[in-house]
Design a protein that fits this description.
By secondary structure, this protein is an alpha+beta fold. The protein has four domains: 88 residues, Rossmann fold (3-Layer(aba) Sandwich), CATH 3.40.50; 56 residues, 2-Layer Sandwich (Dna Ligase, domain 1); 124 residues, ATP-grasp fold, B domain (D-amino Acid Aminotransferase, Chain A, domain 1, 2-Layer Sandwich), CATH 3.30.470; 79 residues, Glycinamide Ribonucleotide Synthetase, Chain A, domain 4 (Alpha-Beta Complex). The protein is 29% helix and 27% strand. The strands form five sheets. The chain has an eight-stranded antiparallel beta sheet. A four-stranded parallel beta sheet has the order 3-2-1-4, with helices on one face. The chain has a four-stranded antiparallel beta sheet with strand order 5-8-6-7, with helices on both faces. A hairpin with a 5-residue loop joins strand 18 and strand 19. Helix 6 crosses helix 9 and helix 7 packs antiparallel against helix 8. It starts with 5 loop residues before the first strand and ends in a 17-residue tail after the last helix.
Length: 427
């Protein structure tokens, strides 16, 4: 048996970080796991540290004091803020890209630039900093059309406008109304791709990419993909009709040429790439790159992992890909997000949550905490928009779906809301 030698700092506080923490906790190489800032769920598998995910100097200081062997970034914001660069200066291993490489997620227009340079199939797009020029372009193109904030907007910076009025309103809100702050001062307006959307994940270092797997996220708040976009309301892994051969082909088409172009520019990428793709009639096209695991895709993907995640991330931090393969079970996974009333607008917080332990006792069900905290009485309460992610494994998508919804039914709080059709598309 391997000696437990690795001290790890995981950065973030959402459902993705709880799923990562639970996965890392199974590694025989792990000796200590710190999560900054974490949530009540991560506290069950490691030690929460009260440092914000974007407080880069404090994260580095803590990692040095605790003799941490590996820093693992969960969300995108610390990477775009330069966490990996600060770690490198402090001689700390970090399993994430530099600030320059994290622009792949931090700037939608930068992604388009890379796609055009590397001949990666993607929707035709234009970048605007002037609201009137953007409105003129939208009126010339007509609807449907996609309006994207250029910067980071926590998964809420994309509007797929089905009418001209909706497109004009999105442009006004982002650019003139400041609805997304600085992220929306510049927008990318692109043609609307038609097809099934899937998320593809790979470990990347330099020009090399190793497939992790794929999932399908359900972005809109309502059943039947209705209502506004959210950070994600549930996911299925693997997606229907997008097996391992199709995933490898998509890596060749949409990820490896990007890695080559990043090396050519002197800003090589290392870390996890999450490519959002549209499977169109003419083949897969790139929607966007993200520079970390998806949320809630990670919660659907990681429970299927049968290999050890920790050595793979350690190898990444050392700019190499591990020789040990990344392996997954053949089981299907379905995860359902339970959100607070009011989400994706202003969520109602403070309601006491019950039934999480009951759900966790169900066969093949795992509940990952996202927007939760403990109140003064030590009760688990709602503290964000997406509150819990109920994930289940099954031999079929149908079985996984039934188990996930059984888990959802075991949990309750005043104002709990969720979609009832996660997994239906895969069926």
């Amino acid at each position: 048996m391997q000696e437990k030698t690795m001290r790890v700092l995981l950065v973030g506080s959402g459902g993705r970080e709880h799923a990562l923490a639970a996965t890392l906790a199974r590694s025989p190489e792990l000796s200590a796991l710190f999560i900054a800032p974490g949530n009540p769920g991560t506290a069950e598998v490691g030690v929460n540290v009260p440092i914000g995910a974007q407080d880069v100097p404090a994260l580095v200081q803590f990692a040095l004091e605790q003799k941490v062997d590996l820093v693992i970034p969960g969300p995108e914001a610390p990477l775009v803020a330069g966490l990996a660069d600060a770690c490198a200066r402090a001689k700390l291993a970090c399993a994430g890209p530099t600030q320059a490489a994290a622009r792949l997620e931090g700037s939608k227009s930068f992604t388009k630039e890379i796609c055009y340079a590397a001949n990666i199939p993607t929707a035709q797009a234009e970048r605007f900093t002037d609201v009137n020029a953007a409105l003129t372009y939208v009126r010339e193109k007509g609807a449907p059309i996609v309006i994207k904030a250029d910067g980071l907007a926590a998964g809420k910076g994309v509007v797929v406008a089905t009418t001209l009025a909706e497109a004009e309103s999105a442009v006004q809100d982002m650019m003139a109304g400041g609805s997304l702050g600085d992220a929306g001062r510049c927008v990318v307006i692109e043609d609307c791709l038609v097809g099934e959307e899937v998320s593809l994940f790979a470990f990347c270092a330099g020009e090399t990419a190793t497939l992790i797997g794929a999932a399908q996220d359900h972005k809109r708040i309502g059943d039947g993909d209705t209502g506004p976009n959210t950070g994600g309301m549930g996911a299925v892994s693997p997606p229907k009709g997008f097996g391992r051969a199709e995933q490898e082909a998509a890596l060749d088409l949409l990820v490896r040429p990007m890695l080559k172009e990043m090396v050519r520019r002197g800003t090589p990428f290392r870390g996890v790439i999450f490519a959002g793709l549209m499977l169109t009639d003419s083949g897969p096209q790139l929607i966007e790159y993200n520079v970390r695991f998806g949320d809630p895709e990670a919660e659907a993907l990681l429970p299927r992992l049968t290999s050890d995640l920790l050595p793979a991330l350690k190898a990444l931090a050392e700019d190499r890909l591990d020789t040990a393969p990344v392996t997954f079970s053949d089981q299907a996974s379905v995860c359902v997000v339970m959100a607070a009333r009011g989400y994706p607008g202003a969520p109602e917080k403070g309601a006491v949550i019950s039934g999480v332990e009951d759900a966790n006792k169900l066969p093949d069900v795992q509940v990952f905490q996202a927007g939760t905290k403990l109140n003064a009485a030590g009760e688990l309460v709602v503290a964000g928009g997406r509150v819990l992610v109920v994930c289940a494994l099954g031999d079929t998508v149908k079985q996984a779906q039934e188990r996930a919804y059984e888990g959802v039914k075991a949990i309750s709080w005043d104002g709990a809301t969720w979609r009832t059709d996660i997994g239906n598309r895969a069926l």
